[in-house]
Design brief:
Order of helices and strands: HHEEEHEEE
Low-confidence stretches: none
Radius of gyration: 15 Å
Structural class: alpha+beta
Mean pLDDT: 93
Shape: elongated
Number of helices: 3
Strand content: 35-45%
Largest sheet: 6 strands, mixed
Helix content: 25-40%
């Protein structure tokens, strides 16, 4: 069985890691985690919720949904908005491929919000990719 979500995540991390604007905000190497380690330096991105829906027909394709959440400890939401903006810019329209699996990423939406604890802001970018192969 093809790991469409894994191909998407790998392509997303590679694209973000290669971009100077992302490095300026999230460090070099870029701080992108499946689960943020305790004490992680902010800002950083966490690969979050996702899912796969098979496409109709015999093509073996799949619609893959993935969320990325930026975490900022900057006073206010400015830094979280900057993370969301650069992630959207880099990923919307990104072509990904690996091991015969290909797809194109589209940004479905984004939001920025303050955490309930008042000292952290979050920015979430929701992605959709149609993957084939």
């Amino acid at each position: 069985m093809t790991d469409f979500a894994g191909v998407l995540a790998k392509g997303v991390v590679a694209a973000l890691s290669a971009e100077a604007g992302v490095q300026a905000l999230l460090g070099d190497p870029v701080r992108v985690f499946d689960a943020a380690p305790k004490g992680a330096v902010a800002p950083y991105l966490v690969i979050g919720r996702g899912g796969e829906v098979p496409l109709k027909g015999d093509g073996g394709g799949c619609e893959v949904l993935l969320s990325l959440t930026g975490v900022s400890r900057f006073a206010g939401q400015e830094e979280a908005r900057a993370v969301v903006a650069v992630v959207r810019e880099v990923l919307d329209g990104l072509a990904v491929s690996d091991g015969g699996v290909t797809g194109v990423v589209r940004v479905r939406g984004a939001e920025v919000f303050a955490g309930s604890e008042g000292r952290v802001s979050y920015g979430t970018v929701r992605l959709r990719a149609v993957m084939e192969g």
